[in-house]
Design a protein that fits this description.
Elements (H helix, E strand, L loop, with lengths): L9 H19 L26
């Protein structure tokens, strides 16, 4: 909308969307830690930062 950047990118969406299923896997395994996949394939530190204030 109006050319403004979105608050989230597709990688943020993927991470937020996987939390429910990963929580279920963790609980099914006695609350064992579950690794969150790196949807950026190692490129997370090259993503453009979002600015929320001027």
């Amino acid at each position: 909308q109006k050319g403004l950047p979105l608050d989230m990118d597709v990688y943020d969406l993927a991470e937020w969307s996987c939390l429910g299923p990963l929580t279920e896997i963790s609980l099914d395994n006695g609350s064992a830690p579950v690794e969150i996949p790196d949807f950026t394939r190692g490129g997370w530190n090259k993503l453009q930062k979002l600015e929320f204030s001027e």
